[in-house]
Protein: Trichome birefringence-like N-terminal domain-containing protein
Organism: Dioscorea zingiberensis
Amino acid sequence: MRTRDPQRALKPSRPSAIIAILFSSLALLYATTLLLPGSPSSSPLPNNSCDLFSGQWITAPRPSLYDASCPFHRNAWNCHRNGRDGMASINAWAWVPDGCGGSPLPRIDPAAFLESMRGRRIGFVGDSLNENFLVAFLCALRAADAGARKWKRKGAWRGGYFPKFDVTVAYHRAVLLARYRWQPVENSSTTLSGDGLKGIHIVDVDVPADDWVNVTKFYDVLVFNTGHWWGPDKFPKETPLVFFKEGKPIVPALGIRDGLKVVLKSMISYIEKEVPKTTLKYWRSQSPRHFHGGEWDQNGSCLFTNPLSAGELDLWFDPSNRGVNKEAREVNSLIKEAIDGSDIRLLNLTHMSEFRADAHPAIWLGKKGAVEIWGQDCMHWCLPGVPDTWVDILVAKIKHDFGT
C-alpha cells in the first residue's frame, strides 16, 4: 500500500457596531434571494473570478450530513457499513476553489436548497457514476426531510421524493444515452464475422434510450453523462458495438470513439430540440478512475491513504502517457467539443476528482467474493465522500444559474 504525507493545509482567510449589524442584516436578506430560482440578481459565487472546478484539497474535517443508515444508499458504495479502512481520512479533506476567497467550498444547506426548489424536479441521466452522484444528493437532502421516500415513476431507475418541500430527485439509467440492443450473430443483418464473434450490440445513434426519452419536459434540472461504458472492457471484440442510423448500419463501420462522437452530437441535438429552454441542463464531465498497477481485471489497485499531489496528476491522466486512467481526459475532449455552442453547461468535476485516489471503495464492496470476480472498485466513490463535494458544486451552480 502506498502512502503519502498529508498535503500542507492552507489556512482559510477570514474576512465593526451599528454599521456591522446593518450590513449583516442586509447580507442575510440578499442571501435569501439567492435561494429563489428566477430571482433577477442571484449568484452564490463570490465574484466572477471564482472557479468552482479548479482548486486544491486541504485538511478540514467536517461532519457528514448522513451515515450508513441512509435508505438511499447502494450497498457497494456504503463504505461505512462495509467496514472500509480510513473513512475518517477520506472525509477529512475539503475543496478550496480558486479565486473564491481562499475558504473551503460551502456545504449544501439541505433545507434552504429544498425550499428554494419547492415544487421542482431534478433528474440525472446516464451511467452508474451519475447514480453515485444521485445517491450522495439524496442522502444529503434527506437531512432536511426525514419523511423522504423512494420514488420510481416516469421510468426512473431510482429516486427520492421529499414531501415536506414537494421536490423530486431521480436517476434514469442510460449508459450510452442512445438506444442499444443485443443481436446474436446468427440473427445479424450485418456482414460482420470473425472468430469468436457471439453477436453485436446495435446502437441507434439517432434514437435516445427508452429510459429517458419521455421525461425531457418533466424535470426543471437535468444532469447528463456518458463515457464510462465506451471501451473494450464493456464491449469486447466478441460482442462489439455496431452503429446504426435510420435503422441501417453506418458504412463504413465506426470505431467506438468515432461512434461516441456521433452519439454525443445526436443526443445533444435531441436535448436542445426536446428539453424546454427554461430547464437547466448540465453535462457532468468524466469521473476519473484510479487503477494503479494494472486495469480492473489485471490486479489494478487503489489502496491509497492520501490524495495525489498536483504534480502526479499528469502522470496518471495525461493521454500522452498512455496510462490505464487516461480515458477521462480523452472523453472529456469529445464532450467539450460536442456541447460547444449549445445551452448545456459543463459541470467539470474531473480535475477536482483526479486528486482523490484515496476515496474509492477498493476492496470493501459489501459482497463476499466480489473482488475475486470484479477486481477492486477504483472507479465509483465511497459515500460519504467525494460525490458530496460534487453535490455542493451542483447546488451552487443551480442557485447561480436559475438566477441569470
